[in-house]
Amino acid sequence: MFLTQNIGSFAGPKTAAMKISLSEDRHLISRELIHTITGNSVELQSAEDLDQLIDQIGDAQYVLLGEASHGTHEYYTWRSKISKKLIAEKGFSFIAVEGDWPDCYRVNRYVKNYPDSGKSAFEVMHAFNRWPTWMWANWEVVALAEWMKKHNENLPRGQKAGFYGLDVYSLWESMEAILKYLGKVDPQALEIAKKAFQCFEPYSAEEGQAYARATMMVPFSCEREVIDLLKEIRTRISHYNTDHEAVFSAGQNAVIAVNAEKYYRTMVKGGPESWNIRDRHMMDTLNRLMKFHGSHAKGIIWEHNTHIGDARATDMTADGMVNVGQLVREQHGDNNAFAVGFGSYKGTVIAGNNWGADMRILPLPEAAQGSWEYLLHLCGAKDRIVFMNDSMKKRFGSKMIKHRAVGVVYHPEYEHRNYVPSLMPLRYDAFVYLDETKALHPLHVAKDVHQIPETYPFGV
User: Are strands 2-6 and 94-97 parallel, antiparallel or unpaired?
Assistant: First the structure.
């Protein structure tokens, strides 16, 4: 087995690392490494086994729950179990996910029992139509949303737990939401919104990509229009006499229009800046949500491990990239944030062969030898929560270990490419390891994907 030891500063450049070899003899591995892991972990079989994790989270206001893929059933169900405990036992204010604001805001209104917000979570989530639809239009999240609706049913407005999207992609949907809202409350501001929308209209067929390509070929962008729109809404928003969340949502959609324009314009140039625009937008959205929910607000964040695990503990930092996990700690303190990574050794996963392709159930091969998941598999092939305490930091804190990351586009035959070198105890505060996992259950039926699972609602 091989681990990579980092030489020098915290998550330094790739060229500053060297390889060290450890014997593959199972007895030696058990004595030197596995004892440390098993001694700082608990086996995970039921929701009651999460109690120690909830205790470790303590008074942190930000709990970041990751995933090693966007298509794994168990990542969603265990995050749901953790989130339910945080909401019911610690009074967390909302779940914010790696999803589009307009779609997730409709879910928020449903789980908070707003009038005319939908007949069922299935109906609301089935309307998610941006690829990859399965990320949020799945039976696992339907079950969570129904639980949240029931939990919120008899609570006063300020205590209802919400559900929001953090992402920046929804340029067109956010513009359309602005037009619809302003059409009801502010005809004057509506004219400014229409002007901004008309600037983007020729490129609407391909979301932001066509617009981004156009700005590469000609010195043109719609930046001025969307900034003017944001200023106008901010100036007039205090006069809107609609429910408090609708006003907040209108302002958020205006911010998305500004940042999405910048994101798509930067995306075609390559480099890390488009990634950084996206994660900074998600962090800014999180800050706005916390402010909106008051001084005692607490938020749960659901995103891929690459967003919630501190980027400074990976080789991302050498490429000039930041992420939400890093920004939360920098802005709000290490003790006020608790990041939980997720991963598995083998199984199946929902993904596509390329962007926009049909979703498929694909094999998730056994984790590569020497990886974090491989090492955890050697600890008895049992599901467990590993706590990244001082003992783990002493044993693993200076060693770069490859850690699997699967995206919405996935090719199992190129599995060796899907690993991020990481200082695991510095990237996360805890890690949920699941030895064998299976694909989640999408609402939109596709080839090789079953529609309604027999085990719904999964006990979440």
Answer: unpaired
Please tell me the class of the 2-78+300-437 domain. alpha beta
Q: What percentage of the chain exceeds 70 in pLDDT?
A: 78
Domain residue ranges of the chain, discontinuous segments joined by +: 2-78+300-437, 171-292
Single pTM value for the model: 0.85
Question: Which amino acid is present at 164?
Answer: Y
Q: What angle do CA 383, 444, 434 make, to 5 degrees?
A: 5
Instruction: Kindly report the number of other CB atoms within 10 A of residue 198's CB atom.
Output: 11
Q: Which of the pair, 199 or 125, is modelled with greater confidence?
A: 125
